[in-house]
Amino acid sequence: YQIYVVYPSDGTSLIDEAVNNLAKVGIVVVSAAGNEGELGFRTINSPASAKYAIAVGALDSSDNLAYFSSKGPTGWGENETIKPDVVAPGVSILSTYNGGYAYCSGTSMATPHVSGIVALMLQANNSLTPEDVKRVLKMTSIDLGEFGEDNMYGAGCVNALYAVMNVTTFGEVYFNTSTIPLNRNVTVEVVLSSAPNGLSMYNVTVLVGDLVEIEDVYFPEWASFAFNSTLPSSEVTVYVEDGNNEVQSGAKNVPLFYLVMKGVEIGETNASISINRVEGDDGEMVSLDALDCYILVRLDRFPNCDYPSDPDGDGLYEDTNGNGVKDMNDLFVLFTNMDWVVENEYISYFDFNGNGEMDVNDLLNLFNEI
Predict the structure, then answer these.
(1) Cys-Cys crosslink for 353: which of 38, 199, 208, 361, Cβ 3.0 to 4.6 Å?
(2) In sequence order, what are the beta bridge partners of 231?
């Protein structure tokens, strides 16, 4: 046979096809994204480029993308796919080496972290499909880079605790994200993973902890009748009917409703989706499990930066550009975005002189600290 290798892969190579076939028969495939990130985007090769593979990028100790970590997307046009799927620590990782141990770097160092989490997930719930595993991994990852999925960080850094918690109480209804920015509204989908008998109505309650507030709710276009309890609140109950039979038998990943949510305080908080009643097209009640999970509230990113951080734990976010260290770039980011800080009500997190205002003295104090 003659074999032609095309680099990077568009997700349709023979290796990609083989990986996709493995996933279709129930085998979870976790693959290193590759170490060609210095060449830019579209540098992910087979087998990570396969649609059903879980492609893993690498982070350094500051949660920044490693310089070598390959980037997406894969495919073109309507077949373009965001890759990698997730990221994990991949710089200076203690590993076996030549009969001993050594600190190594690469996406091949990041991938075992994810493989281990997948093993824990399957141990907790061996009925999970490869699609379930990838969905829960992405849903529970800590968002990095641009808000939402992107071609550098994917869905974000994997979180073993969140992932296992979300399969031990695994149900068919889930949030499509677990990260909410402070003081800014974002839309979160509540999704039904499958409707084998279609969907005629549902009554669902969402409860979030005191760090998050539900501001509003809206519904899919196909909803013929919809009702929700009073908002804003930390709890909302919705009742929806599909009177026109738009959600057919066998439908997958059906958006039930959309919540406009806002973080009101930084930290981790519990959230739950309780299933009061769901009926298929035959009018029979469908049994679904409730979902218990965590939501992470954090400061939003400055434009074109990663999430800011508090390196010394004093409650002030000196690392404005999110690279894990205090440097002159942080001063520049703050200087060019002082109005942004005020507009987003983040003054207390960048008030380095403690006067309750955003002014030039904050820049001077940050400069002296750097």
Answers:
(1) 361
(2) none
Longest distance between any two alpha carbons in the chain, whole Å: 74
What are the angstrom distances between the C-alpha of 97 and each of 35, 42, 69, 106?
19, 30, 21, 14
pLDDT of residue 281: 85
C-alpha distances in angstroms, 355 versus 140, 312, 348, 368? 38, 20, 9, 17
**Residue 189: both structure tokens together:** 């989908």
The torsion region of residue 48 among left (phi > 0), alpha (psi -120 to 50) and beta comes to: alpha
Taking a C-beta distance cutoff of 8 angstroms, is the pair 120, 164 a contact? yes
The closest alpha carbon to 288, from 203, 222, 178, 187, belongs to 203
Report, as ranges of residue numbers, the positions in the chain whose pLDDT lies below 70: 1-9, 168-172, 287, 289
Task: Decide: residue 334, CB within 10 A, 0-12 exposed, 13-18 middle, 19+ buried.
Answer: buried
Architecture per CATH, 1-170:
3-Layer(aba) Sandwich (3.40)
Q: Which amino acid, residue 101?
A: Y
- pLDDT the model gives residue 93: 96
Rounded CA gap, 213 and 174, in Å? Answer: 18
Q: Give the ranges where the chain is alpha helix by DSSP (H).
A: 14-24, 107-124, 130-139, 160-168, 328-336, 338-343, 347-350, 360-369
Omega of the bond prior to 8 within 30 degrees of 0, cis? yes
Instruction: Report the pLDDT value the prediction gives residue 6, as an integer from 0 to 100.
Output: 39
The reply to whether the predicted model has a pTM over 0.70 is no
Closest among 54, 51, 52, 83 to 70, alpha carbons compared:
83
Backbone angles phi, psi at 15, to 5 degrees: -65, -45
Tokens 């690392």 map to which residue? Answer: 319
Please give the DSSP secondary-structure letter assigned to residue 55. E
Q: What is the pLDDT of residue 336?
A: 94
pLDDT at 287: 67
Query: How does DSSP assign 274-336, residue by residue?
Result: EEEEEE-TTSPBPP---EEEEEEEEPPPPTTS---B-TTSSS---BTTSSSS--HHHHHHHHH
Cβ atoms 16, 79 nearer than 8 A: no
Q: Which CATH number fits domain 172-298: 3.40.50.720, 2.40.50.140, 2.60.40.680, 1.20.1250.20?
A: 2.60.40.680
